[in-house]
Design brief:
This protein has about 850 residues and is of the alpha+beta class. Among the domains are: about 160 residues, no CATH class; about 270 residues, no CATH class; about 120 residues, Immunoglobulin-like (Sandwich). About 55% of the residues lie in helices and about 10% in strands. The protein has 33 helices and 18 strands. It comes from Chryseobacterium jejuense. Pfam families: YfhO. This is Membrane protein YfhO. InterPro entries: Uncharacterised_YfhO (IPR018580). Keywords: Membrane, Transmembrane, Transmembrane helix.
Length: about 850
């Protein structure tokens, strides 16, 4: 009976999560969809991939849509036999973002049920975790892979704790393996990496407990073996994805450096420190886990527009010279953010009550949870400081494997956002239920923690202006007093409002706990009060960053690259800042569409109107020189930095010719100017002059100096390729593209002499095959980043096809891993049921 009652409570809790998720996302009821910046960029960059899939029913693992061509592994490619990804898709069955919110709630509920085995505390903890502000910020931005990965943090931890703490080996194996597989399938390695840094503390905690004989060493070894097997099988289910990305990442900006210059050294792996640590949390800024606008909220809070208007008014009234105006302009940053980061979409607010309860939890929770959660929380906060705590950052970058592959250390605070709600409900549960904790101890801790917390808030409220400053170093340097004083006063008001709310919320939670301790308030009522106040707090803060304005009509969400303006479009856009870009880009989109329709050949467009490396509008209509992607191929990124981001009137056009930029678009989005480029090299060309150079630095320098239509720059390491392969000029020779697909290109060539064919296709050493008259031949790298192949005299059919071996190999490993999981899970369930039957038979006899 009790078991059935518990199942009812669990079912009701899941219904509550669905209701909360839908109530937060009410526009989905009217068919509206989220308008997410990164998803808009994805739709443009992945257009060629999506069209190929729709037209052929097959998958292409290469696309020419962005950055001259790149693998699609990080662009939404699908893998045959990817069963674990299908499970992930089925779990995300609800409309976006309801699916994310529901799984965040439900996943933590499972963790809560494993840890405290009480649905009330699991339900409360689920709202603490599922309403963490950072999740709503990344949903609004379109970081879907990130939030999809975070969904599986809590259930993965639940599976591990089932094994280590609950000693439920079979269920623990099943839960850990399944959610490890789903975690990897969500495809955000950075988030998974950060989670496992925290899990390292759990492993050390269990090892120490075993050494201290607080738990049997045999149990620790068995548990560790089961968890290791679960993780290996979970990873194995994703073999295609992992093997492809592992092969790919070595050739990207996350892999080894190729060039040697002031910022990096050839052969050194990972990104340069400046890029890695750009988004580092300020040390004081960490307190915005507790007070959302301690350092302001996002760079563009709702109050920012009004503040900017007032600033412009003050400047007009008080500034009398252009020199003073220029000085002021140097100090401008975000109106409503004054922290250490270059900018931010919002704070990693955890909730005043959650942070307060987490502090209590570190006193009330049992030691098997307390110390590893404390250690993991401290480490992740220190790592989030990044450039503001270089001794630790330097150590991790230089000595901890893979840490230097990831940027934006501030995002590691997702670990705290998992662990604070966890320690909060563990402490709360023991506060109400553990008789070993004396009333005197509870009261003492409650008084000290609540007094200290409320005291800190009072100090910040009274002395905040001197302690927090409310201005950046640049503003202090360049702003006159009248402007600085205004900004400080306005920002203090923002902070003060949130700090007063935090004071009130903590006071209510502390009072509820104190009254329940004195038997003047029922513990269940205390939980309801704490839950409702925390819900209100987080809900209202989250609505600053993900609200009804983030939803648009389906037509705009699914086709954000509108090419025709209309009264209806104008009407829909008015009042919604998220849609302003759609309206403002209509003319440039129409221009790009016109180019693509008039000239259907294969070429690329160089578009300066929206920022070469910050848009995918061009890619939506035609292959682009630029694009928008965090994991570009290293060689292409080097060329961008050398010649495109730093333009030169002589050298940059040569590079654009090399990349077959047949059209260039200048001006602004409203009045774009199309300039045809008749000098573009075309899809392929023959060269007879070879320039051999010794280093990559010489390679990249030379391609801006030579006539690349006649000469190819070749690395000295490829000299052996030309053994018995002479190259001789023929003015009548030609090579033309006859058939184009993103993963297969066909050319027809004619030459009286042997030639080197250079293709305006990005060099990638894995998966591409070159066949001359259907016989595979080796190819080399030319001009630092292009493919080249020696072509004998005569008429030839040349075919390039992208068939990465890792995809097929990975598919079979994935299927075998999933099959092994099913077999072991089935055997485990059979064994468990068999033992239960034995126990049932033994009990009457006894």
């Amino acid at each position: 009976m009790a078991k059935n009652k518990n199942l009812i409570y669990i079912a009701v809790s899941l219904v509550v999560f669905i209701v909360l998720a839908f109530l937060y996302s009410t526009p989905v009821f009217s068919g509206k969809q989220l308008f997410q910046h990164d998803i808009v960029q994805y739709r443009g960059g992945a257009k060629e991939l999506l069209d190929y899939r729709a037209n052929t029913g097959n998958e292409t693992y290469w696309s020419d849509s962005m950055f001259g061509g790149m693998p699609t592994y990080q662009m939404g490619s699908q893998f045959k036999g990817d069963i674990i990804k299908k499970i992930d898709s089925n779990l995300n069955f609800l409309p976006r973002p309801v699916n994310y919110l529901f799984l965040l709630f439900a996943g933590f509920f499972l963790l809560g049920m494993v840890v405290v085995r009480n649905w009330k505390y699991a339900l409360l903890g689920a709202t603490f975790f599922g309403l963490s502000t950072y999740f709503y910020i990344i949903i609004a931005a379109g970081h879907n892979g990130k939030v999809n990965t975070i969904e599986y943090f809590a259930p993965l931890l639940a599976g591990i704790l089932l094994v280590y703490i609950r000693k439920q080996y079979i269920w623990g194996f099943i839960v850990t393996t399944l959610f490890m597989g789903l975690q990897i399938a969500a495809n955000h390695p950075q988030m998974t990496y950060y989670l496992f840094l925290a899990l390292g503390f759990l492993f050390l905690s269990e090892l120490i407990r075993a050494i201290q004989k607080k738990t049997p060493m045999k149990h620790f070894l068995i548990s560790s073996g089961i968890i290791a097997a679960s993780c290996i099988i979970g990873v194995g289910m994703n073999s295609q994805r992992i093997m492809a990305n592992s092969e790919y990442v070595k050739e990207t900006v996350r892999g080894k450096q190729i060039l040697t210059n002031d910022s990096h050294t050839s052969g050194k792996s990972g990104m340069d420190k400046e890029s890695m640590l750009m988004w580092s949390y300020g040390q004081l800024e960490t307190l915005n886990l507790f007070i959302p606008r301690l350092m302001g909220g996002g760079s563009q809070e709702p109050e920012a527009k009004e503040m900017m208007n007032k600033v412009q008014e003050l400047v007009q009234e008080n500034v009398g010279s252009q020199a003073e105006m220029d000085r002021i302009s140097k100090g401008f940053s975000g109106m409503t953010y004054w922290g250490d980061q270059p900018g931010t979409s919002g704070p990693a607010y955890q909730g005043a009550i959650v942070c307060f309860l987490a502090l209590l939890g570190f006193f009330f929770a049992s030691k098997k949870y307390r110390y590893w959660i404390l250690g993991a929380s401290i480490l992740t906060i220190l790592l989030a400081w990044g450039s503001n705590f270089m001794p630790l950052s330097d150590f991790f970058i230089d000595y901890v494997p893979f840490y230097n592959k990831f940027r934006a250390p501030s995002s590691i605070l997702v670990v705290v956002e998992l662990l604070f709600p966890l320690i909060a409900i563990i402490g709360l549960y023991r506060f109400f239920t553990d008789e070993k904790l004396t009333e005197e101890y509870k009261q003492k801790v409650l008084m000290y923690v609540s007094g200290g917390t409320l005291g800190l808030l009072l100090i910040l409220l009274i002395f905040g202006k001197s302690l927090l400053g409310f201005s950046t170093a640049g503003e202090k340097t360049y702003f006159p007093p009248f402007l600085l004083d205004y900004l400080v006063d306005e920002r203090y008001k923002l902070f003060k409002a949130d700090a007063l709310k935090a004071f009130m919320y903590v006071a209510i939670a502390a009072a509820a706990l104190f009254l329940s301790l004195k038997k003047k308030l029922n513990p269940n009522i205390a939980l309801v009060v704490i839950g409702l106040v925390s819900l209100f707090d987080l809900w209202t803060v989250n609505k600053r960053y993900l609200n009804d304005e983030n939803y648009v009509d389906k037509i705009f969400a699914e086709n954000p690259f509108q090419t025709e303006s209309s009264d209806l479009l104008t009407e829909k856009v008015q009042g919604n800042p998220n849609l302003e870009s759609i309206l403002s880009n209509v003319n440039i989109n129409k221009t790009l569409e016109t180019i693509a329709e008039k000239d259907k050949a294969h070429y690329r467009i160089y578009n300066q109107t929206l920022g070469v490396t910050s848009e995918t509008n061009t890619s939506y209509f035609k292959a682009s020189i630029g694009g928008y992607h965090a994991v570009k191929l290293r060689r292409y990124d080097d060329v961008l930095n050398e010649y495109i981001n730093n333009t030169d009137t002589v050298k940059t056009p040569r590079i654009l010719n090399l990349l077959n930029a047949k059209y260039m678009v200048f001006g602004g989005p409203d009045q774009p100017q199309v300039v045809p480029n008749p000098k573009a090299n075309g899809n392929a060309w023959f060269v007879s002059d070879l320039k051999f150079v010794d280093t990559p630095n010489e390679e990249i320098k030379s391609i801006g100096e030579i006539d690349n239509k006649k000469t190819a720059v070749i690395a000295s390491s490829d000299k052996a390729y030309f053994s018995n392969k002479p190259v001789q000029a023929d003015s009548t020779a030609f090579i033309n593209l006859t058939t184009y697909q993103p993963n297969e290109l066909e050319f027809k060539s004619q030459s009286k002499t042997p030639q080197l064919a250079v293709f305006s296709e990005v060099y990638y050493p894995h998966g591409w095959k070159v066949l001359i008259d259907e016989k595979e031949v080796p190819y080399i790298k030319a001009d630092y980043l292009l493919r080249a192949v020696h072509v004998p005299a005569g008429s030839h059919h040349i075919r390039m096809v992208f068939e990465p071996e890792v995809i097929e190999k990975g598919k079979w490993i994935s299927l075998l891993s999933f099959g092994l999981f099913i077999a072991l899970a089935a055997f485990g369930m059979f064994w468990m049921n068999k033992n239960k039957k034995k126990e049932t038979l033994i009990e009457p006899t006894a």
